[in-house]
Queue: 4 jobs
Job 1
Amino acid sequence: TKEQEFDRIISLPGQPPVTFSQFSGYVTVNENHGRALFYWLTEATTQPEKKPLVLWLNGGPGCSSVAYGASEEIGPFRINKTGSSLYLNKYSWNKVANILFLESPAGVGFSYTNTSSDLKDSGDKRTAQDALIFLIRWMSRFPQYKYRDFYISGESYAGHYGPQLAQAIVNYNKKFPHPIINLKGIIVGNAVTDNKYDGIGTVTYWWSHSMISDNTYKKIMHSCNFTSENSSKQCDNAVTYAVSHEFGQIDQYSIYTPSC
Amino acid sequence: CTENYAEKYYNRADVQKAMHANTTGISYSWTACSDILLKNWKDSDDSMLPIYKKLMAAGLRIWVFSGDTDSVVPVTATRFSLSHLNLKIKTPWYPWYSGSQVGGWTEVYDGLTFATVRGAGHEVPLFQPRRAFILFQSFLAGKELPKN
């Protein structure tokens, strides 16, 4: 389509030669509020027409798929220290699939809204709804991906985004005998799943990996109920003590890595 | 620390032009995470487990993996949560391999596959790119993770 060609990336500054096509741009998901989501499609390195489409969502909520998914994790390019050039990722997932990075919800990365209050009342439901509208409209721009095997992937708070978008697609698809979004599955990593059980499991991890003392473990398990939104003062104090006095200067996202 | 490199790169005008980004002139710089969204998040379901049940009933392929050095959403958190789905085990717990090394452990349930990734933090493909790639290939192929 003409729109598709408008979105084609000729070459990124500092980019090494590549064999795959890439596209990026905006899809409006709400005209009244002026919400538009930014995407970056890196097609498969070989036979993209025969490979599935995989959507990558980052977590947060509020973190960028372009920053993390594309540039640190599964995308074809890595950025050098000075931000002046790119180099190739040997294990890029676009060797086996067409990867669509989505900046979601509006307000993340290059995605934007013309209604500033959208930034203060965003949440799970609107995010899933906007992402569904994005997919439907994006496939009009890229009709070659209609009916293609489609998967959703992501990490962290995308443990919410991924299943919720999948559910929205499943419900949407019920209206059609042959739906254009051919959702086959989801894959999520280190995913936020259940507030209560995640909370208990997290503190257990801290204790079993010797990050906190027996005493602190007992205090947290005794004073935190892991369910209520308003935590107790005793619970907050116990967790704060663990973080401030027992964790040390570690990267909590990778406990054996020096902090940045 | 690599998000710092991204902050430099994606705020370059020539990069934004090449990507057809920021065409409306957003009033703030590109950032890896939005604090305002995080602080003001309005609705968040307490649990994804009911949705997982619906997705499994719809016949979707569902894989959940976990880098085992992450302490923010750690492997025990995910295992404890998934255990409350009370799923039937199809292939019992076993180590999967990446080359000649253990890539992690996995268990295949009826409707869901769980896998750990050894030595990976929160961003699994950043810390263990090869193991993450093998995991992704197996997921796409609908095959269990390699046993040797």
Job 2
Amino acid sequence: TFPGVPKWRKTHLTYRIVDYTLDLPRDAVDSAIEKALNVWKEVTALTFSRTDEGEADIKISFAVRDHGDFSPFDGSGHVLAHAYPPGPGFYGDIHFDDDELWVEDKSGTNLFLVAAHELGHSLGLFHSADPRALMYPVYNRLTDLARFHLSQDDVDGIQFLYGPPPVSPDEPVAPTESVPSGPETPAACDPALSFDAISTLRGEILFFKDRYFWRRSHWSLEFEFHLIATFWPSLPSGLDAAYEVTSKDILFVFKGNQFWAIRGTEVQAGYPKSIHTLGFPATIGKIDAAVSDKEKKKTYFFVGNKYWRFDENNQSMEQGFPRLIADDFPGVEPEVDAAFQEFGFFYFFRGSLQFGFDPNAKMVTHTLKSNDWLYC
Amino acid sequence: YPLNGAARKEDSNMDFLQQYLENYYNLAKDTKPFVRRRDGGPVVEKIREMQKFLGLVVTGKLDSDTVEMMHKPRCGVPDVGDFT
């Protein structure tokens, strides 16, 4: 919060769009502001109504350079906008720098993202030091707009000021459950934890989940937890599959019908590519998991209850596939979420369970919780 | 000529740093001149504060990661203190 913890003493607030940028149609500006208001409305008891004239709690305007508040804008780039904490007069107001190119997508500065951030200030939130938070001060042009959500830090902050949203009398809530407080960071030792994708990378093992991954090294009993975007800003979240080709020092990651090749922190030029360039039929829209047999230079791709085998030497999908997973990997669940190879074993993950498969004995030799690798 | 160019770039970086710290980290405006100081003066402390806040490696120095972060588009509201 701001120094002194200023907040609105009411839960219904008015807003007014005083003027518009010429970068966007008016209805696009209206829509971006409404969407940004909803971000905060969804997690609090706050409600908003629009007024088109006179005083409003939150007045929204576009301006350039000196605009009468002793905080001049600086032309294109750097400062995008600013806003004032709750209070009378200019307090609560939002000013956007109209020297920016305001857009609805990511081709310029996304108005919705900046508006949602500035509204946080208008409601009483100060900057957050959490890079995952909407209230982090630096604009993140890589934010996935389709999957945008507040961080737990944002939710905790705004609910500290205004409380959670009221529970509808029609909505059953188990007495022992707290009111949902928004999207949460996955917990390593959550007994229900499942993984999106798993791969080795340069001697470490990466466990991907939503926007995050755990990084486990052989040389340390500690494991690290990071945002995917911290290392690979252009990658999407919620990956489907990942595998490493150690001989090429490349990590391949998959999401939907696309895949990326990564060396270290560098996404390789020419990617993403379509998964169909690997030889999948056009009916396949995504893969569930992938694992590379490092010695045999074969990569296994799992889709539903079937799998394909790719020859890394020939760079082609092998004949005779797909085959049923159950036929060649007996004991493994009919479908898998993630897989990787380590210590000569294939490890297949499904939900909160993992199956250690010995390829020589062609059998599952041990079944453990998925997060056993995270010392849980 | 190249040496002068390099010096100018460094001065420009330092001016930008000073302004950034004044705007967003509540650096007192009478702290100048600071760029030649190599001790743990208020500017170094402010750099450290900024690096910690922005999730950078805390070195107290104007390293490339810090400069890159400072040049990214951002909100004009200070990270520390209030509007100056």
Job 3
Amino acid sequence: MFEARLVQSSILKKVLEAIKDLLNEATFDCSDSGIQLQAMDNSHVSLVSMNLRSDGFDKYRCDRNISMGMNLGSMTKILKCAANEDVVTMKAQDNADTVTFVFESPNQEKVSDYEMKLMNLDQEHLGIPETEYACVVRLPAGEFARICRDLSQFGESVVISCTKEGVKFSSAGDIGSANIKLAQTSNVDKEELAVTVEMQEPVTLTFASRYLNSFTKATSLSNVVQLSMSPDVPLVVEYRIGEIGHIRYYLAPKIED
Amino acid sequence: TPIQNDLHEFYALV
């Protein structure tokens, strides 16, 4: 038996919003420690890794590990049936081929349940080692979304350069070029408004702006986004999911021919 | 123009 209850169904809605641009379907691996998801987009350029810890749920029970392959379009339709203030419970029997979503209004006067068929998905799992990154940048998530949106008007690629002074985002194309420099915040009153750089060595990498834009669909999950970079390895874009977990996007860099 | 890499070039399958 698997059962996970979350008082704020809006978190689940936001998680889905954050992954459905990149993925059509995904397997939710449920264990005693929580719910994990790892999936690459169809082109194998980016990867989504999500973790929701069991202790972040209001109730969590997982007697046996289960992997639930879900069509994210169908899941989106079902979660649209939940009001933001509803309590959501996901339930499945061991070895089940369906999952049930139960939505309860805060006063318990309306209770709805939606059963969704599960899918058997062939999954490729990548082993991502724990890595010390040469540069770790934290900035307001809204600012990052704005930068990605603005620069994607110029070209298909965004160059991210990180030095101890700050971080620079650049793009160039047919209409011209654009550079956005963010300096490290000197006085930090509010952490969620700060730009911070932890740098071991400067890094410059090039990425497809289309994927960066997709990652920013997670903006509503967190005030802050963290970018981790090292020379010639994938970028990691991480958003915390409240006190319950995180979503990380990995993006392979573009390399000069 | 730079060439887009694949994630398989960086991480092994497990």
Job 4
Amino acid sequence: SDQLDSHDEL
Amino acid sequence: MNIFRLAGDMTHLASVLVLLLKIHTIKSCAGISLKTQELYALVFATRYLDLFTDYISLYNTLMKLIFLVSSFSIVWYIRHHKIVRRSYDKDQDTFRHYFLVLPCFLLALVINEKFTVKEIMWTFSLYLEAVAILPQLVLLQRTRNIDNLTGQYVFLLGAYRSLYILNWIYRYFTEPHYVHWITWISGLVQTLLYADFFYYYFQSWKNNVKLELPA
């Protein structure tokens, strides 16, 4: 999934 | 990844490790709210559903595992460990935290970025995390004095979210499309909840007196 779509923060 | 976020994650990790250390070494959970720990376990369980589906980085996956394992083991310790459980003061830890779960879930159904199961669970975990500390703050209010480790635990938790706010500001100015109002507002609410605790924590630290929260 592209970076922006999925949440990359904890 | 930026320094604010890394510092935030490390502070968050420290808060959990301080708590685990306290419970494991002195075999006591005096002053700790089981309800807050249960809420945190639920926060991680609902936020990290994508643990095995979306691989972002080794760091991301590793930290998610650490947070999941540590939060659930803290709950296990307080509920089932034969020595620790005796120090749990269930008569004082009476905040009806289930009343927090439903409104957060309903709010997540209404206000979210995308109406998908994963996104709604993720948004729910954000709202829940904002209020998860309430049972702990109420318990601190009740028991008046708090021991150092508990104070440090709450302090580190508040500090981690404050660092995340700096991270969001940094990302907003450095990444053109980075806009997550829901995250920002719930993170801000969460930090404000800690603000009064911070005030008294610093007062006690400055005057070198034991922390006393006003009734």
